[in-house]
Amino acid sequence: MRAGSGPDGDPSGVKGVDDPLMLAAATTLVAWTTTELAQGARSAVSGLTEFLRHRFRHEQAAEQTVEVALRHPTADTVQHLAALLEQETLRDPVFDAEFLARFAKVQAIVAANQGDVTNTVSGDVSGSVAQARDVHGGISFGGHSGA
User: Fold this and answer.
1) Is 84 in contact with 22 (CB distance < 8 Å)?
2) Is 120 exposed, middle or buried (0-12, 13-18, 19+ CB in 10 A)?
């Protein structure tokens, strides 16, 4: 990973990231992987992370940067991921275009699925449980036969 210079050689970038888009992309990607998302969005995010894993599979340090950021996100690991993405987009315009296109697609899918509900019940539960997003009308549990 580069030590902190932009395409013009200026070492003043924040921890090696001069491109705010790459920092935003890395931050957003890590947030998506650590957030409970609806199934469609989760699948899209998984596809993007697999794209990155595949891209860096032959570069041990880069592969580790991706894995650490996704599995143990901190401000530093996200910065390192952003720097890696920035470096790779500067090195390979095809990767740049493909990553940005895939990221935009995932971003649209996540936004479209934000209204979805993912319900979970855990622990010791006794009695009736209702999990719903929008209810129009009533909900009844076991009630009386009414006679």
Assistant:
1) no
2) exposed
